[in-house]
């Protein structure tokens, strides 16, 4: 029993930490990340099993499973998009939420396969964890990209088209992968190529989105130097993920845990400020100029209590 549990949990933990690291500037709230993961690991799996048995036949694993599983996994992204729009900022967020839903789904599905296996458990672990471990995360992250593109799309028909294309591609690649796996060894390698190649493409998209975040962060905060809200050194710090870590570590070593939390909160608020300015500039209807003034006041208030010598003191 220990081997299946470890084989399921360790890769899931590794991939989740990798996603958390990838979100370098504007990290998503932990409750929402946990909600995405839990939706994939419990309700999505339960609903998929029920409807797969209800609708499945001889072609169930190949045809029916993708048609059932992908919409239920995408439902988590739809709820996040509709009810937590302010935390769904773009393509990178969509990839992270989508991949977490996929990792949660894969974790539970793998555990069920391992517990009910009548064959070689080591072969099954190798196949589902090592060779095809990124599949569900890849499929659902495609839908996440679609939601990220929809975030700033004002034309309803284009938003709907993006969603249908994202969901359709996730179902297509899922079905193609399942079809390949049914042909044993060569098929396994084909499925690995589909899933791993797709994951690499999604990762490249995430890196491009990350670079885009950094560009608007640096561009939008220039004005705050002129306003006297931050200094040039503070500007350079918040625009660099490496310098952020150094400043937070410096605060921890010289001011303790409270100073570290203040430093981290300042970085977060300034990132939110830059994002809000960008969203207002492009006409996002979910924010107002009052939100901007509110954020600037929060930055000033926290900045006044920042530890002297931390390397990131906001001027009041």
Would you kindly provide a written description of the structure presented here, covering whatever features stand out?
By secondary structure, the protein is an all-alpha fold. The chain has helices spanning 2-22, 30-41, 43-55, 60-83, 91-115, 121-131, 135-150, 156-181, 184-227, 232-238, 241-281, 289-304. The chain contains twelve helices and no strands. It starts with a helix and ends in a 12-residue tail after the last helix. It has two domains: 2-211, no CATH class; 228-304.
SSE map:
Blueprint lengths: L1 H21 L7 H12 L1 H13 L4 H24 L7 H25 L5 H11 L3 H16 L5 H26 L2 H44 L4 H7 L2 H41 L7 H16 L12
Short recap of the structure:
This protein has 316 residues and is mainly α. It is built from twelve helices and no strands.
Described by strand count, sense and barrel closure, the largest sheet is: none
Termini Cα gap: 58 Å
- Please bin the fraction of helical residues: over 70%
N-to-C series of helices and strands:
HHHHHHHHHHHH
Output the number of helix runs.
12
- Tell me the total number of β-strands: 0
Q: Please, how many domains?
A: 2
Indicate the overall shape: globular
Residue-averaged pLDDT: 86
Radius of gyration: 22 Å
Q: What amount of the residues lies in strands?
A: under 5%
Structural class: mainly alpha
Uncertain regions spanning at least 5 consecutive residues: 307-316
């Amino acid at each position: 029993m220990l081997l299946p549990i470890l084989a399921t949990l360790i890769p899931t933990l590794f991939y989740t930490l990798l996603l958390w690291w990838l979100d370098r500037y504007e990290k998503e709230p932990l409750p929402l990340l946990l909600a995405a993961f839990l939706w994939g690991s419990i309700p999505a799996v339960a609903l998929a099993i029920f409807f797969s048995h209800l609708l499945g036949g001889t072609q169930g694993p190949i045809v029916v499973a993708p048609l059932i599983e992908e919409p239920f996994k995408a439902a988590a992204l739809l709820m996040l998009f509709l009810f937590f729009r302010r935390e769904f900022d773009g393509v990178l967020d969509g990839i992270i939420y989508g991949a977490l839903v996929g990792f949660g789904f894969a974790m539970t599905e793998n555990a069920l396969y391992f517990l009910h296996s009548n064959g070689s458990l080591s072969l099954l672990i190798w196949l589902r964890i090592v060779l095809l471990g990124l599949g569900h995360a890849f499929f659902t992250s495609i839908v996440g990209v679609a939601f990220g593109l929809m975030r700033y799309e004002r034309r309803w028909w284009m938003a709907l088209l993006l969603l249908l294309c994202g969901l359709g591609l996730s179902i297509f690649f899922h079905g193609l992968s399942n079809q390949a796996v049914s042909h044993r060894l060569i098929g396994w390698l084909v499925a690995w190529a589909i899933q791993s190649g797709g994951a690499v493409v999604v990762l490249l998209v995430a890196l491009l989105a990350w670079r885009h975040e950094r560009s608007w962060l640096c561009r939008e905060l220039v004005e705050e130097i002129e306003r006297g809200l931050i200094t040039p050194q503070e500007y350079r710090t918040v625009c660099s993920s490496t310098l952020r870590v150094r400043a937070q570590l410096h605060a921890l070593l010289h001011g303790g845990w409270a100073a570290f939390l203040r430093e981290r909160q300042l970085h977060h608020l300034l990132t939110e400020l830059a994002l809000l300015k960008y969203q207002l500039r492009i006409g996002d209807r979910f924010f107002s100029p009052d939100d901007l003034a509110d954020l600037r006041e929060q930055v000033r208030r926290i900045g006044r209590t920042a530890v002297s010598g931390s390397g990131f003191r906001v001027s009041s």
